[in-house]
Amino acid sequence: MEQQAEIQYNGLEENLEYENLINRVVNECFKNEGLDKLKLYISITLTIPDVIKEINKEYRNIDKPTDVLSFPMFQRDEIQELIKKNYEVEDVLGDIIISIPRVKEQAIEYNHSFERELAYMVVHGFYHLMGYDHMEETEKKEMRKKEDEVLNKLGITRD
Prior knowledge:
Elements lengths: L4 E6 L5 H18 L6 E8 L1 H12 L7 E5 L3 H9 L6 E9 H10 L4 H16 L7 H18 L5
Parallel strand pairs: 1-2, 2-4
Antiparallel strand pairs: 3-4
């Protein structure tokens, strides 16, 4: 299986269970969007609230921690062009930063498993990299539908 996620840690110990789950989710995301034949990958950093707060402040001018941040390298139409032309250059699709303590809190808050919440953060970040957003209700529905497709294919539900 092609490795489509480069996983790093900032303030946390390495965790093979996290990595296995993230790789399963990223591979399914790539397959779902037709990126699995390209040489693209995602850089994912797992971190702590203090670190994600600093990044959020620096890049978004929001001085508080968050659960996930995404930094795409391509516009949505550019990604479609890469797929159409079967882009063969190894390149990063974008960066996703996830606060693991926040994932744990939200799993409890939403009454589902840590696995489900971490998988959701990865899928959510991925679709931001793909150019999707949730500011408008129609965009939100489109993004949620795609997120649910991936999670359902993996059998990762809210239960």
